Amino acid sequence: MGRWIWIGAGALFMVFLADTLASAIVINRIAGQNAELVRDADGATETFPVSTQALLTEGQPPRTARALGGRGVLFGTQMTYAVPTGALITCRITLLAANCDGGWRIEFGMP
């Protein structure tokens, strides 16, 4: 019986370690690359570059989405962005996928 407690504790520790590492990789990806929020609606494409510097400064370039903050989720992070139209967009970004609400998607590596 005591052996299974240690095996369970070890497995739980490994999941915690993997989650922490995955979240760190995702945050590094967000901070290290340019990103755009994109939505295809009614045949037209809306695109807003994401400004992560807006977290620290008052001024923000026009027509850019502003990162408001985030929180950790399993194997990634969840970020909230404000776009110039006034909408708030929540994106859950993990190692394998990035899902946003309202038909939006986030694309990394944009110039």
Describe the structure.
The chain is α+β, with helices and mostly antiparallel strands. The chain has one helix at 2-32, and strands at residues 35-41, 44-51, 65-73, 76-82, 88-94, 98-100, 104-108. A seven-stranded mixed β-sheet has the order 6-5-4-3-2-1-7. Strand 3 and strand 4 (76-82) form a beta hairpin. The radius of gyration is 18 Å and the shape is elongated. The relative contact order is 0.19.
SSE arrangement:
Blueprint (H helix, E strand, L loop, with lengths): L1 H31 L2 E7 L2 E8 L13 E9 L2 E7 L5 E7 L3 E3 L3 E5 L3
Parallel strand pairs: 2-3
Antiparallel strand pairs: 1-2, 1-7, 3-4, 4-5, 5-6
SSE arrangement, N to C: HEEEEEEE
Strands, total number: 7
Low-confidence segments, ≥5 residues, pLDDT <50?
Answer: none
Structural class, by secondary structure, is alpha+beta
Percent helix: 25-40%
Shape: elongated
Mean pLDDT: 84
How far apart lie the N and C ends? Answer: 57 Å
**Strand line-up across the major sheet:** 6-5-4-3-2-1-7
Mind summarizing the main beta sheet? Answer: 7 strands, mixed
Radius of gyration: 18 Å
**Helix run count:** 1
Beta-strand content: 35-45%
